[in-house]
Design a protein that fits this description.
The protein is built from 12 helices and 12 strands. With 497 residues, the chain is α+β, with helices and mostly antiparallel strands. The chain has a 5-stranded antiparallel beta sheet with strand order 2-1-5-4-3, with helices on both faces. β3 and β4 form a beta hairpin.
Length: 497
């Protein structure tokens, strides 16, 4: 479950669940307390309004006493002048938060409650005959929070009498008080329990992934990348775990690449050292021959000097190759891209190749199958370097008496395809997929004095790919090799005016 959904669910739960549970609890508690009220006070038909309308409840509580006093007032009013009898009546009323007041003419003859507390109601009591004495509901006096039921009668001596049942509405029945306290406690417990459960639910959903990521971060900090971080859920934290795992994999891959790169650099240094050692030894040997007077004829001197020159040139080539590779590998090689006409450019390349290869006794042929004024976007110098490196690599492993190199330019849809074919010794099938890898050398080249550094073709691949192209090769041992690479055509985009 997503964190957003989890939080929405928690919000709905914390909003609805307490209300629902509170309603159920209050319903059950109210039913119980209603039963207790009816049992303790002898009431029937008590409803839930008992808890919200205390006046109605207190009115019902004193209903029986009201009818009793009304009967006595009619049948035997003399008893209402009897303190003993009045105390008995008042005792029953006090259990119901009420008390009795009796007035004879204008004089109060009996007060069943606290006289000081009753002072507020005495001045408000209606006179004889001022109210309907047959009403059971009484009159509520809000300023003193009292419900007064009024009964007028006549004493045996013909004196006017009035009996008042006064109920203190400000007091709360014990059952109602208990209900309120229990309801408040239940609401607090429900809120606390709901919040605790939701916090635990959210905490459990968050701490699990966080604990995993904390452990993973510690492993990464200590340099341990050999672990796997699995996402347990498809939520934000699960996605974070997945991103964390991707980061770990990238770090591990980078670490492995660095190790491989360091290994390749060591191999490069070893290869360059070996390849430089051979011409250096030759230069040293021929130089000593000149110094010792071995080259005692003009012909020998010329041969020695020419050999020294060639070996120095070879060393220079190796150094330049290494320098270029360093620039390419760090993306510091300056490319000067421009729009180049295909036919004119490759015609010039073919002409230069023809002169160079002819001087070296290599047969060269050139075929251009591109029609029209096709163009490409390329760095002319770097693209020529690609062709020269491929040709140099072909000549290095040429084993035929009559060496031959063919250059073909073809139009293949959105690309211009360049093919360079030789009739050399060819490349073994197991080596062919790796010939463009950095520092890779075939078994034959390792055992050959012409092995080289193993970076020539990797430079070619890098340059072609920087042009948005692709390079590959086909070969057959003993027959020869064909190198292919493609460069995307230049296409003008029409501008709608």
């Amino acid at each position: 479950m997503k964190l957003k959904t989890r939080l929405i669910t928690a919000f709905i739960t914390v909003s609805v669940m307490p209300i629902l549970l509170t309603g159920i609890v209050i319903f059950g508690m109210s039913r119980y307390q209603i039963g207790m009220i009816e049992k303790n006070y002898g009431l029937t038909g008590t409803t839930y309004k008992s808890f919200t309308n205390p006046v109605q409840v207190f009115n019902n509580l004193t209903e029986e006493s009201y009818h009793k006093i009304s009967r006595v007032a009619i049948e035997d009013s003399e008893l209402l002048d009897d303190v003993t009898y009045l105390e008995e009546l008042n005792g029953a009323l006090q259990r119901k938060s009420s008390y009795l007041i009796v007035r004879k003419n204008d004089k109060i003859t009996y007060i069943g409650g606290d006289a000081k507390k009753a002072e507020g109601i005495l001045n408000q009591l209606p006179g004889y005959g001022e109210r309907d004495t047959t009403s059971e509901n009484g009159v509520y006096y809000g300023d003193v929070q009292a419900l007064v039921k009024h009964i007028d009668f006549a004493f045996p001596d013909k004196e006017f009498g009035s009996a008042f049942i006064v109920t203190d509405v400000s007091s709360v029945m014990p059952e109602v008080r208990q209900f309120i306290s229990d309801a408040a406690l239940a609401i607090i417990l429900i809120l606390v329990a709901t919040a605790a459960l939701l916090i635990f639910w959210i905490y459990k959903g968050i701490t699990g992934p966080l604990s995993k990521m904390q452990k993973a971060a510690k492993n990464i900090k200590e340099g341990n990348l050999d672990f796997q971080l699995e996402a347990d859920a498809d939520d934000e934290l699960g996605q974070l775990c997945s991103d964390f795992e991707d980061m770990r994999q990238r770090l591990k891959m980078n670490a492995e690449e660095k190790l491989a790169y360091d290994k390749e650099n060591k191999e490069l240094i070893s290869n360059i050292s070996h390849d430089l050692k051979t011409p250096v030894t030759a230069i040293k040997g021929y130089a000593e021959g000149i110094m010792d007077g071995v080259a005692d004829t003009p012909e020998k001197m010329d041969k020695y000097i020419r050999t020294i020159y060639n070996k120095a040139t070879e060393m220079d080539r190796l150094i330049n190759e290494l320098t270029l590779y360093s620039k390419i590998d760090t993306n510091r090689i300056p490319y000067n891209f421009s729009t180049i006409p295909v036919s004119a450019y490759f015609d010039d390349c073919a002409e230069d190749l023809s002169l160079e290869l002819e001087s070296r006794g290599v047969d060269f042929s050139y075929s251009n199958y591109v029609e029209g004024e096709q163009k490409i976007i390329a760095d002319a110098e770097q693209l020529k370097r690609v062709i020269n490196n491929i040709v140099t690599n072909s000549l290095k492993y040429m084993d035929k008496k009559t060496a031959r190199i063919n250059l073909r330019i073809k139009d293949v849809g959105d690309f211009i395809q360049v093919e360079l074919e030789d009739n050399g010794k060819g490349i073994a099938a197991k080596d062919l997929p790796n010939i463009f890898d950095r520092f890779y050398r075939t078994d034959a080249s390792r055992n050959s004095s012409k092995g080289g550094s193993g970076i020539g073709l990797s430079i070619v691949k890098k340059i072609v790919e920087e042009h948005g192209g692709k390079i590959w090769a086909t070969s057959k041992e003993g027959t020869g090799t064909v190198m292919y690479f493609v460069i995307r055509k230049y296409q003008e985009v029409p501008i709608n005016e």
